[in-house]
Here is the input.
Amino acid sequence: MRPELLSPAGSPESLRAAVECGADAVYLGWGSFNARQSAKNFSDEEFSAALAYCHERGVKVYLTLNTLVTDRELDAALQCAKTASALGVDAVLVQDLGLFDLMRAALPDLPLHASTQMSLFTSGGAREAAQDGCERVVIARECSAEDTAHICKNCPAEIEVFVHGALCMCYSGQCAMSALIVGRSGNRGRCAQPCRLPYTLAETPGDGAARQSNPPPFAGKPKKSSYPLSLKDNCLAGNLEAMAKMGVACLKLEGRMKRPEYVAVVTGIYSRLLRERRGPTAEESAALEAAFSRTGFTDGYWQGTTGPALFGIRPADAQEPKELFAAAKAAVEKGGLRTVDVTMDAAFRKDAPCTLTVRDADGHAATVSGPVPEAARNRAVTAEELEVRLKKTGGTAYRCEQISVSADDGLSLPAAAVNALRRDGLAALSALRTAPPKRRVLPLPALAEASCAADAPALTCSLARVDQLTEDLLACAPARIDLPLDLFDTLSSLPEFDGEYCVILPRVWRDRDEPRLLELLDRAKALGVSAGLAGNLGHLSLLRQSELSMDGDFGLNVFNGRALEYLAGKGLRSATLSFELRGAQMRDLPKVLPTEAIVYGRLPLMITENCLARNGDGCSCERPHALVDRTGASFPLLSVWGHRTEVENCKPLYLADRDDWKRLGLTFARLRFTDEAAAECVRIFHTYQTGGAVPEEFTRGLFDRGVE
Here is the structure.
């Protein structure tokens, strides 16, 4: 079965371009809860008109409600979904776990799609979303052909793949760089795109500790780049047949921020490639690149490679392809590129109103009647003449493929009456095609009344290296110590202490890694670990198999009480709140599950598929590195599972000199240690127990200012 082609519609003009040029579906933003707030998006009237325009032409419309929402915003976001459902939107893309839980309860008939912002890249994570009611899962852009085929085979939901357009450096849904640097959250649709700015890769003093496992093949020669976070645009135009064979249900084109002419060009080419089941010609490849590219395209992730060959920038002097865009614009404005085939049956009888039945291939049939034909005074109208008049569907969404006219002899009917009959028939068919489906709206489920708020939080700590786990740290009596799972590859024992050991699962992994991860989980359990931090829906099946207690990590992006309730239903015993929340929002969030917040440490800005140290000067990530921006701020790089990189904030979050973090109702407060020496970990722990002076370099993070 041919995959669906899904095109961006950042404006009504782009929507028309997408539909006219062959899109099977479009995705658009309406209201205040979509991940492209800077796009033009749609007004209420435009959204309703867009649904009618698309459905009349057999094109589906997907609404993007794929941002994190606060408790105060949940009602408005749900009302947006209710209105869209009533108007007939075909599906809603969602990221926020709380909003997802509400929609599946209150709107059980509304199809839901798991946005790529959910950070799903394994079959276990995709199955978790499918079991909870997602009809489609948009998997991470970083997934290779091998990864995608495995997910398609092992997930009951439809799988959607990004095939063309911009690539984020960080896994979608896990980027906090824009939020922490300028207060504009990518998870809230406000990304300022700091990844497109220049940086310098530098080695830094310190011990460091690289953890590598199964590094992907390396593409290209190592070279220094002043734009080490700027990826080329993705182009998988030559892989469409392979995707169809592996069962990919939908191919998504990126570009809600792009102009309508871009949408027309890219949609038109991909539509032809799908219809004709082929790869692009040299001319089509050139047109794609001319429409928009960053020094060319890449298909590196799809091929399973990383490295400098994937990176590029948009030159400042890049020229607009005026002729290409002008031709695309003219074709769209002329219209008629996208029509629906219909059949007509007309009857003109003596002493009876004339009738016309119009049918489409989807099973809709509309019958209308007109005036009673009169006896001809001079020349009678023929069936052939009536047929010609009825087939004139120009300017509409329809094309008459076949017509049958039955007419008695000797009758006369004005041309205006025949034209009106045709217009009425097509209008009646359009009413059927655009009628919204009947969907239930159930009462809003009440939030659990039980409160798990605590009077004061117990201190926990997460470590990055074995050398940070010392007797002095244990003497601080943390309630829990979190250790990365891959450390257990070499650990033979754990020192005893009165608290609990918890394992931190890799933030990013693949299905092929899971046998090894399960081995390490068993090893950790044998050494005394009793729980695991789940930062991804895909972690849940692994922890269940290991029979470890489950706590939610920051990667789950908990932004509201409904998200906590959802995770409680999944069997989690606690959850970490998003560090993009202000302290006041954490305080007011309904704690239907014990909560934790990070109160110290370098907050993670990105998790990247590429090893940034390897990109810069060959593979030297066993030595500590940092990215240095134009202001001189230095962002440490932490090497993590799979030869990936976690970019840490330039300054650590520090709240030890304040007491307000103790009054948020948190059950746990976490000290997150990354590049600190062992003695520094102990010193900082003591300051949080007793209070301490403000350090020379620190940040309050988003605790006071929050995000847009």
In short: The chain is about 30% helix and 20% strand. Confidence is low (pLDDT under 50) at residues 208-214. The two ends are 42 Å apart (CA to CA). The first helix runs from residue 12 to 20.
